[in-house]
Write a structure and sequence with these properties.
Blueprint lengths: L11 H11 L4 E5 L2 E4 H17 L7 E5 L4 H12 L3 E5 L5 H11 L3 E4 L2 E2 L2 E2 H8 L13 E4 L3 H7 L5 H9 L6 E6 L9 E5 H15 L6 E4 L6 H14 L2 E4 L5 H10 L4 E4 L1 H9 L13 E5 L5 H10 L4 E8 L4 E5 L6 H6 L3 E2 L3 E6 L12 E7 L6 E2 L13 E9 L5 E6 L4 E3 L2 E3 L1 H9 L4 E11 L3 E10 L7 H8 L11 E4 L13 H8 L1
Helix pairs in contact: 1-2, 1-3, 2-3, 8-9, 10-11, 11-12
């Protein structure tokens, strides 16, 4: 596919270089006490690009990045893009078996990481995976480099040899692989989504045009860079508009609130879980949020409780829902700026410019407006497929991305998400979509988070089990939740089991990990 913006053949590093020419002194990235202008960011990527060439990496090669959000991650991302090397984006929450599969599946030649994340020793993990290089199980891997070590410092200081770098950059094409992002692996092995320069920039351009980001506007980026929510919806959408990003290393509500105090943002972006934790933190009430003009919540539509809290704290800010996948390089669907509250709560938005949507019945028939089926997309940002073991997947049949998400489209083009196809359960012969029941339970003022799954039942076949995390300091009972639901949904949709918990498992992208809840139920 081609970049759907003004330049069809723009590459990622060219987008950075253009921002450096237009806004050389504007702060592009803030990382703790460190600030980097667009000009400095472009220069740093050139030094590292030559260092990667000196390591023997060439167009078509792959390196892995595993760390919390930090400036070195971005510097290497753009450095690799300059020479046609793809970045395999890995979450610091992955552990030995997951990483062993992903590194082998992607044939990574080098890994760049950190010594430690919180209490976890990343360096020791790589020593276990590959005590010596090359390792039999990772034959392509040649080097493991830590960001804070002497080796990386040497790389960052590598002199730019212009003829060598310019020759490597000239070979890069917009349709070259730029990034591999592994799905969360909710069923079977994770799949490596093949994102190109063109697909990432197309998605970022569509979002940037829709949100109207202005040069110099600051985004506090809590979404991880190893996910499209961080790299495309955050960094690249800002880059194309000349906007700035402050990198949140690891999301902690207190840390983010302290950052907001120091650098008031114009934009807040996060999955509903992040925004809820931010607003519920005891320090939140003392933080001035008047600078925020746009709030983008991704992963699902805003529920009534969250929307009410956002509007109470930031009454002049616009709230937008965003829906996208790794397979779409970023955003596919967003709410319009003038979206009514009812639509924000019920729908994920409308397709962005350049995106087509259709709803399919199980047999492949295209369904009309108002009927529920699988959401399928094509156009802006949709990738061509996967790499490695999943390369033959049928998720992109007939040029359409089959999302596995259930939803419907109304006559205005608004899309309502009903949940994952595998989440739907059949209770007593009736189809039940957990997302609908979750939204009702979440509307109870005492509920912080909720997730529903279907579990076997000897009489009804399946019943709904809903896991609920109460808000801090709230005494919540199962009876109170059942009373809250009674009479507000059909009797066959009523939750038959409610389990109160202190927390729910999350995916590396910060979403509730239902596969782990299903494993617990077995």
């Amino acid at each position: 596919m081609s970049f759907a913006g003004p330049e069809n053949d723009l590459k990622l590093f060219e987008a950075l270089d253009r921002a450096a020419r237009r806004h050389p002194q504007v702060t592009a990235y803030i990382d703790g006490e460190r600030g980097f202008s667009f000009g400095q960011a472009a220069q740093a990527s050139e030094h590292l690009a030559v260092a990667l060439l000196d390591m023997g990496l060439r167009r078509g090669g792959r390196i892995a990045l595993l760390s919390p959000n930090r400036i070195e991650w971005l510097q290497l991302f753009f450095a690799a893009a300059r020479i046609g090397v793809a970045v395999v984006a890995l979450s610091p929450r992955y552990r030995d078996s997951e990483l062993a599969f992903m590194l082998a599946d992607s044939a990574c030649q080098a890994v760049f990481t950190v010594e430690q994340v919180d209490d976890f020793d990343c360096a020791s993990m790589f020593e276990r995976l590959a005590p010596q290089l090359p390792a039999p199980q990772l034959p392509a891997l040649r080097q493991v480099v830590t960001f804070d070590g002497a080796r990386f410092a040497e790389m960052a200081a590598t002199p730019v040899r212009r003829p060598l770098l310019d020759d490597a950059s000239a070979q890069v094409q917009a349709d070259d692989l730029a990034m591999v992002i592994y799905t969360s692996g909710t069923t079977g092995r994770p799949k490596g989504c093949a994102l190109t320069h063109a697909s990432m920039l197309a998605s970022a351009w569509g979002q940037s045009q829709h949100t109207g980001v202005r040069p110099g506007e600051l985004l506090q980026l809590g979404n991880p860079l190893n996910h499209v929510g961080g790299i495309t919806c955050g960094v690249l959408a800002q880059l194309l508009a000349g906007g700035s990003c402050e990198l949140v290393g690891t999301f902690k509500a207190q840390t983010v609130l302290d950052m907001i105090r120091r650098h008031p943002p114009a934009l807040l972006v996060g999955v509903p879980t992040m925004l809820t934790l931010l607003l519920m933190h005891p320090s939140s009430a003392s933080v001035d949020l008047d600078s925020v003009r746009l709030i983008v919540t991704g992963g699902s539509n805003a529920d009534a409780t969250l929307l009410g809290q956002l509007k109470a704290r930031m009454p002049t800010a616009t709230v937008m829902n965003l829906y996208g996948l790794s397979e779409s390089s970023g955003a596919l669907v967003m709410s319009p700026a003038d979206c009514a509250d009812d639509d924000l709560m019920q729908a994920i938005g409308q397709p962005l410019q350049g995106v087509e949507v259709q709803v399919l019945a199980p047999g492949g028939t295209v369904l009309p407006h108002g009927e529920i089926g699988e959401l399928c997309f094509r156009g802006l940002g949709v990738v061509r497929g996967y790499i490695g073991a999943a390369a033959a997947s049928g998720a992109f049949a007939d040029g359409w991305l089959h999302t596995g998400d259930l939803g419907m489209v109304d006559a205005r083009g608004f899309i309502t998400l009903k949940g994952r196809m595998k989440d739907m359960y059949i209770q007593g012969g009736f189809n039940v979509y957990p997302a609908e029941v979750e939204a009702l339970i979440a509307s109870h003022p005492g509920v912080l988070m909720v997730a529903g799954i279907g579990v076997p039942d000897p009489v009804l076949g399946e019943v709904g089990r809903y896991f609920v995390v109460p808000r801090e300091g709230i005494s919540l009972s199962v009876d109170a939740l059942l009373a809250h639901c009674a009479g507000r949904i059909a009797d066959y949709k009523m939750p038959r089991q409610i389990v109160l918990r202190e927390q729910l498992p999350l995916t590396p992208a910060g979403k509730i990990h239902k596969a782990k809840l299903r494993d617990e139920a077995v």
